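Q: How would the structure tokens look for this protein?
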Amino acid sequence: MEVLGVDISAKKVVSRCDLERVCSGLNMFRIVTLNPEILLHAHHDGLYQRTIENAQAYTIDGVGLAFVLSFFKKEKVKRYSGAELLLDALALLHKKKGSVFFILPDDSLSSSQSVQEVVTFLYPDITVNVITVRVSRSGARVYSVDDVERVCREMKRCMPDMIFCTFGAPHQDFFLAEISKTMVDWDCIAVGVGGAVDFLTGKLRRAPLFMQKIGLEWFWRFILEPKRWRRMWRAVIVFPYKILISQK
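A: Here is the predicted structure in token form.
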């Protein structure tokens, strides 16, 4: 199925019940948490579109995207947010006594120490590793080649079962695609989860459950972070408009 020119294979869509199955796969398994903003960006960026389409799996992180796939594409999918995936993955790792590797930007709301402490406290059977990368929010390349090599060296030392990058889209997806070129013969899950880690550490409060269920989590984020209004506009107004135009 195609959304704004991006080919989203239904076979690649991962739900909560699929997580344990994909965690037993081979080689680096990269998951992209799709939402309207990501698809809008990919619609105008061929490199990002290819980066998304080359991922091994997707989750549908965005009520607007879930509606589009159900109404226009006749695909029955449920939203599975990055925040939910993160918690489910950590619970699975805890059960298996596995290891996790967090890659944080240097301007992260949650510090590397807070991530280390919170995850260790909540999931004591997980081996936790955290690294910080300097991320420039301007320019075509937001991280250095040296940082990619440094992260790869550290991951080879730790050999984690799961990797979570929190740069935000599209930077986290580019970064994970870059390191996947080096870690080709190593079994792990790699996911960009953006600000989901801030819910885990308590730096941000997630929307009440009833708002999540009725698809108004975006409005809650807008209340907490009004500076995100441009992102909300694109997700809530621009994305549906583009979809309607594309159906004509």
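Residues 20 and 185 are 20 Å apart (CA to CA).

The chain has one domain: 2-246.

Upvote if useful.
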